[in-house]
Amino acid sequence: MADSMKNVRARTAELPCRAAPQLFFAEDPAQLLQAKALCRQCLVRRACLTDALRRREPWGVWGGELLDRGEIITGRRPRGRPRKLGPVRRDPAA
Length: 94
Description:
- The protein is α+β, with helices and mostly antiparallel strands.
- Helix content is 41%, strand content 12%.
- A hairpin with a 2-residue loop joins strand 2 (65-68) and strand 3.
């Protein structure tokens, strides 16, 4: 039993998310893309995503997907002010 636990610990230490955990919880969209790319190589990717969705993980990259409030989202914008949509046009007749 002790040997099997050592084997499990050794295998989980080799997971991509263990090498650079900060990438999987970064604010920078480029770092999040890098984390997703690392997930593509991972042997436990599907199980990781399934468990994260079940636990409703609040944020981060899990199983190659970006989660926010327990749900998969397509992307995250960097911190800061939102983009301006352009000048507001007012109706001169009003």
